[in-house]
Amino acid sequence: ALEALVQVVDRLLGPGGCPWDQEQTPKSLRRHLIEEAYEVVDAIDGKNPDKLVEELGDLLLQPLMHAQMEALKGGFSILEVAEGARNKLIRRHPHVFGGAEAKTSDEVLANWDRIKQQERGDATSSSILEGVPSGMPSLLRAFEVSKRAARTGFEWPSFESVLDKFEEEVSELAEAIDSGNGERIESEIGDVLFTIVNIARWLGVEPEGALRSMTQRFILRFQSMEARAQRPLRELSEQEWDELWNQSKALLESEAR
Fold first, then answer.
1. Contact residues for 177 (Cβ-Cβ < 8 A; gap 6+)
2. pLDDT digits (tens, 9 = 90+) for 32-78
3. Quick one: 2-89 is in which CATH superfamily?
4. Buried b / exposed e along 239-255 (16+ C-beta atoms within 10 A)
5. How far apart are CA 218 and CA 196, in angstroms?
6. I need a labelling partner for 60 at 20 to 30 A (CA). Which of 142, 163, 170, 171 fits?
7. What is the DSSP string of 85-130?
8. End-to-end CA distance of the chain
9. Which pLDDT tens digit goes with each residue over 195-231?
10. Which pLDDT belongs to residue 125?
């Protein structure tokens, strides 16, 4: 089936193929790659296996399109992409395919980082933070940066010290708000958010997923309020807002049980 899919992509991009597909470039497909990845995430969150199969197929199409575009120009093919991925996995899992030992996830990650730096050709000067994509969602990027930094030993001594740092940052944000300095306020909000990311990391919570779940819960509760309100929402009093919110929250929680 995979070979047949490659043949379909080849047909679409080749002579007599699809005009729209033939007009695409790696740059124009960036948006589609990101959209397909998020649709996979939605399917995972929705716990719908049939939808996940469909969305994974759409996502799989993206690297095939990119590789075939390059192949038509005399560049690499999907076989070289697959071979590169295979070789990388073998190199970075010496505890599975070689004689190295790694009995815990932390040891596996330490090996991974060490091998990755060696592959760059300068294990002494290459930063462990290189390779964290700047285009990642900011919350996810902050989480990845803090994880990598912590693996080097740059870490708070205890969870309590992380909470202390959070209280310190909130206090500094309050001072910035009092000052009325917009740039300082923005900077302090960034500090608070980054500290929250580290609180999540210490608790073993992926903050991007946590915020995504909370946003979805908010959407469902707000839509429930819209459905239950007897008049335009802008006309509701503060007490009516509170009552509707609590009713909607209780209703959705009972349905989830």
1. 185
2. 999 999 999 999 998 999 999 999 999 999 999 999 999 999 999 99
3. MazG-like (1.10.287.1080)
4. eeeeebeeebeeeeeee
5. 20
6. 142
7. HHHHHHHT-HHHHSS----SHHHHHHHHHHHHHHHTT-TTTS-TTT
8. 40
9. 999 999 999 999 999 999 999 999 999 999 999 898 8
10. 55
Q: Where are the domains of the chain?
A: 2-89, 127-205, 208-256
Written as six digits, the tokens of 93 are 């899992």
Q: What does the block give as tokens for 154? A: 């740059």
The token pair at 6 is 């490659």
Q: What is the CATH number of domain 127-205?
A: 1.10.287.1080
* 196, 210 Cβ separation under 8 angstroms: no
Domains 2-89 and 127-205 share a fold: yes
Compute the distance between CA of residue 60 and CA of residue 1 in angstroms, rounded to an integer: 12
Q: Assign 113 a pLDDT band (cuts: 50, 70, 90).
A: confident
Distance CA(128)–CA(112), nearest Å, equals 11
